[in-house]
């Protein structure tokens, strides 16, 4: 290169002082980033500086690790950003045989998860998500066959939630069941938890407070029976996470926390389950004429004969029939 700059000076301008330990990324002719070589002066000669193995790529390694971690978190938790729960995927990414999610439309105002659980039968539930504003709910079953049977039954006999008839159809977005959740379900996991031999200080308010931080977890009900606390939730995978959290707390130390069967797994009823009808009040029937029996055929003659016989022997042989005064 023609000019007044030496090679060492040019290297110093381009690459910085030789004692710097960091490399700066530059683009090669293919557009890929490469670290620029640094030069050091040894005995008056400029030589490329080769970083030790522990210094190589130290600038890019954190970026790569962050990208990989972010990708892993995105893959595992991307569905948390979805409006109706984790692991929700469109039907385009799942075969038709994997349909397990139905949608219920036309729900009444102020409907609750408890109302939905009371109405849905035929199979264990994997996840429930409720949109009160849109009067719709998404119900995902553990088994695809249960979802199909529930849909067919609802179309044949109708479905009523909180005493209102609703519409049931396939959801456009199907809930994805991860293999590890499937394995847990095979070992007895459900959306319902039970705390055996719960201490007296364990209350419904305390349980709800300990679970309220779990994303998308809805505690439907907490009931106490025979010293045990039964907790109904809206999701299997969230119940798994809630159980792990509770077991790590000192509050529940020494207590066994397990799962109990889903009441929605009860068989479907073949009798239409409509709203309860209040019996209409019966029309008041007029009282019958108490003298109606006296007008029956032959009753007057018999009564006259009996009255005449009695009249001759009543009150000391005084005949009332002969006491009539003639005008």
UniProtKB/TrEMBL annotation:
Taxonomy, superkingdom: Eukaryota
Location of region: Disordered: 1-106
Composition bias type Basic and acidic residues, residue spans: 76-86
Biased composition (Low complexity): 87-101
Any one GO MF annotation of this record: nucleic acid binding
Segments of skewed composition (Acidic residues): 63-72
Matches recorded under CDD domains: RRM1_3_MRN1
Gene3D superfamilies: 3.30.70.330
Name under which the protein is recorded: RRM domain-containing protein
Organism: Aspergillus puulaauensis
């Amino acid at each position: 290169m023609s000019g007044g700059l030496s090679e060492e000076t040019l290297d110093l301008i381009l690459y910085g002082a030789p004692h710097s330990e960091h490399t700066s990324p530059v683009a090669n002719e293919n557009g890929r980033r490469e670290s620029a070589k640094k030069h050091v002066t040894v005995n008056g000669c400029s030589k490329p500086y080769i970083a030790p193995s522990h210094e190589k790529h130290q600038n890019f390694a954190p970026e790569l690790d962050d990208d990989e971690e972010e990708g892993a978190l995105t893959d595992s938790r991307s569905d948390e950003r979805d409006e109706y729960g984790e692991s929700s995927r469109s039907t385009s990414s799942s075969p038709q045989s994997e349909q397990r999610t139905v949608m219920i439309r036309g729900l009444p105002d102020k409907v609750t998860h408890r109302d939905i659980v009371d109405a849905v039968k035929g199979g264990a539930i994997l996840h429930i998500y409720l949109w009160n504003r849109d009067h719709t709910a998404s119900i995902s079953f553990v088994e695809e066959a249960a979802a199909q049977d529930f849909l067919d039954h609802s179309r044949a006999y109708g479905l009523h939630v909180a005493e209102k008839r609703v519409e049931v159809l396939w959801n456009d977005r199907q809930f994805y069941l991860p293999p590890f959740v499937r394995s847990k379900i095979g070992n007895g996991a459900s959306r319902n938890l039970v705390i055996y031999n719960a201490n007296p200080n364990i209350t419904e308010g305390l349980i709800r407070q300990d679970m309220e931080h779990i994303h998308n977890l809805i505690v439907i009900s907490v009931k106490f029976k025979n010293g045990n606390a039964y907790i109904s939730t809206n999701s299997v995978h969230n119940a798994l996470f809630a159980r792990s959290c509770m077991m790590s707390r000192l509050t529940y130390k020494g207590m066994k926390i397990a799962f109990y069967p889903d009441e929605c797994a009860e068989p479907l009823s073949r009798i239409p389950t409509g709203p309860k009808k209040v019996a209409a009040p019966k029309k008041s029937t007029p009282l019958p004429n108490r003298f109606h029996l006296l007008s029956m055929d032959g009753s007057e003659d018999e009564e006259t004969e009996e009255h005449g016989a009695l009249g001759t022997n009543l009150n000391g042989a005084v005949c009332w029939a002969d006491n009539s005064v003639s005008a």
